[in-house]
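Mods, move this if it's the wrong board.
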Amino acid sequence: MDVEHNFEPHYEVIEGKKKLIAELKAAAKGVDSVYLAADPDREGEAICFHLQEELNGSKKGPKFYRVMFNEITANAVKKAFEKPGSVNLHLVDAQQARRVLDRLVGYKISPLLWDKVRRGLSAGRVQTVALRLIVDREREIRAFIKREYWTIDLQLNAKKPPVLTARFTKKNDEAIELPDEATTKGLLDQLDSAKYLVHSVTTKEKKRNPVPPFITSTLQQESSRKLRFSVKRTMMLAQRLYEGVELGAEGSVGLITYMRTDSTRVSQDALDEVRGLIADRYGAPFVPAAPNVYKSKKDAQDAHEAVRPSSARRTPDHLAPFLQEDELKLYRLIWMRFVASQMTPAVFDQTTIDVAAQGKDGANYMFRATGSVPKFNGFLDVYKESKDEKDADDEEEKNKLPLVTQGEELRFKSIEPEQHFTEPPPRFNEATLVKELESDGVGRPSTYASILSTIQEREYVKKDGGKFVPTELGMLVTDLLLENFKNLFDITYTARMEEELDEIEEGKMDWREAMSDFYERFQKDLDHAERHMTDVKRMEEPTGEACEKCGKPLVIKWGKFGKFIACTGYPECSNTRELPPDPASAEGLSEQDAEEYCENCGRVMVLKKGRFGQFYACSGYPDCKTTKQIGGTQKKSDVPLDEKCPQCGNNLVLKNGRFGEFTACSTYPKCKYVKQKTIGVPCPNCTEGEVVERRSKKGKTFFGCNRYPDCDFVAWGKPIPEKCPDCGSSYLVEKWLKAGAVAQCPNGECKFKRPLAVPVEVPA
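Not the wrong board. C-alpha cells:
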C-alpha cells in the first residue's frame, strides 16, 4: 500500500494459491463467458473483482458476469443466472477502504506496542474499541458502591386461593424509598393490625408481538444465550448450513440463506411458503392477515435477506438424520425464529390489583400485585426469545392472582420486609458484547467472531464463567492507546468511520479522499505517540521496601506476565516476587492467604506468576524449589531413592507431577529418563514386552506395551493374565461397575465376566 501515491494498493497472489490461479486461467481460456459467484457481500464482491483482473489476460478475453444469490438452492441459482450483472465497484471500494484502514491502524500501532510493552501484541480499529468497552465496564464495576434498599411484600388471603402477594409502592399517592432497616421498621409499625381492602382491580388485554427473523448479530446473540455457542462456533456452523449438506437422494442442498446480513427482508416466495406451513401445522388463527414486515437498520444492505431456512418445509425433524448434533441445534433455532416471525401475536389478560391499608398515622399505604394470564399463545407456541436479564413480563407471567372484587377485605397472612443492595452492571459475555458493539455502530457483525477471538488470543481478556474480564495487560494496553490515540479509539468516531464506509459503498464518497482525511489526523497522533508513549519495559515504580537478599531497593516492574516486584541489584541479585493481589480484583485471596510457609524448609512462600497464572513459591529458591497452587497443597520436594538411573548413572528420585507420583532421573531435564510403572503382566499381543501403566494427555490412565511403538497394544482396563474360558482371549481386564470389580473379556463379542472380591494383585 503506497501512502505517498494516494494509497495505491499492491496485491500479490498468496503463496500456495498460484497453482489454483493458473488452473482458473487455463479454464477461462477459449470460453465466451465467466460467471463470478462469490458471497453476496463486500468481501465477495472484492473476490470477484480480483478474479476478473487475474483471469482477464487480454482484450479478447471472455465476458465477465456477476451472479448473486442468498441461498444455495437449485431455484435460487437458476434465478441468479437468468439476470446476471457486473461487479459493483462501489462495493469493491468500500471493502478496499476497510482493508486499508485496518492495515494503517494495525501495522502502524502494533509495532509501537512491541517496542513499549512486549512483542506479539496488536491494536485494531475495532478490536481496541471492543477491548475498551470491557475495560471501562470492569472499572465501573470496581468503582461501584453498593446502596442499601428494602422492599416489603404483603401476603393476603382472598375468598379463594391462591395467596395474593403484593408489594408496597406508595404512601399517600407518593412513591416512597426504603433506604434502611429503621425506615422499614417504622413503616411496619404503622401497619400493625391494619385492615387491607382491595382498592382497585384493572384488567386489560396485552399483546406481545413476534420478534424479527435473525440477522447476523441477533443470531450470534441468541445462539450464545440458548445454545451456549461462541460467536466463532455459530458462524462456522452457519457457514456449513449455508454451503450445503448432503440430503440423501436430493444431493447437496444449502439449508439456510446467507448468514452475513443486517437486513430483516424476506422474499415473497419464502413468505408464501412459511404462511402455508403455519396454516397447515398450527391452523388459520396463527396466520396474520398480511405478512409481518420488520424494519431493518438505516444502514442495512437490503439486497440481502434475513437469515432463514432456504425452505421452511424442511423441518428440523425432517433434517435430523442428515445433520450433526450442533448443526441441528442451530438449524432448529433459525427455523423456529423464522416461522415464529410470521405468526400472530400472543395475547394476555394483564390484571393489576391495588390493595390499600390505613396506618396508625392516618396515612394511606398502597400495595400492588400484577399478573398475566395467556389467552392465545400465538407465536409463543413455536419460539420465545431469550433475554440477558429478567424483565417485568417474566415476573407478571409467574404471578398467579386470586379472583377479587373492589372493596373486598382481605385476610392478613404475613408481611415480609427484605433487605437488598444495588448491584454493579454485569460484565459482558459474548452475546451482550455483540449487542453493545452493534448498538454503538462499531464494526460489522461479520467481523465480531474474529475480534472476540483476537482479544482473547492476545491475552487482553480472559473468560470467567462465560464473562469477559480484562487482564492487567489488557488494561495497560487500553490506557496507553487511549492516552495517545483518544479520537481513533473513541466509540463515536469508530461508528462514524463505519458510516463513511457505507457512504463509499453507496457511491456518495470517494474512498481515497476518505483515507486521506483519516491519515492526516492519524499521522499526527502517531508521531506524538512515538515520542511520548510510556515505555513500560523501562518503567520502575518504587515500593519503599528493601531486598531481603541483598538490601538494595525493590521496585515494581512490568514483565511477560504483568507487574512484579524486582531487586534493583539485578543482574547480581535476581530476587523477584509477585505483587500482592489487588483487593478490588482478587477473588478469594487475602493477607492471611499470603502468609504461607514452606513445609520443606520453613521459609516464607511468596506469590509468583507463571504460564498458568499465580502460584506460591518458596522464597528460598533455588535452594528450595517447593511450589504450591493457590488454594491447593504445596508441591512436595523430590525424594531421593537408592536406585540408579540406567541411562546416566545418577540417582533416581520420586517426583510429584500433575497426575501423581512418578520415578525419574534426579538430573532432569539434562537426563529425561522416566521409570515406567510395570504391573507384572507380559504383553498379550507380542509376548516379548511388559504391560506398563501410562497416562493420556488428558491424564486418563491406560495400559500399553513397553515396546511401543514396535508393539501397539493398549487397553483402558487393567489387564489380568488369565485366559477367557468362553472365547479363548489371552487376557481379561479389570473393570469397575456399580456392583463392584469384575474381570471381563476385552473381546466385544464375548460377554464373559466374573466378579472380583478385591482388586487383582498381580504377582511380580
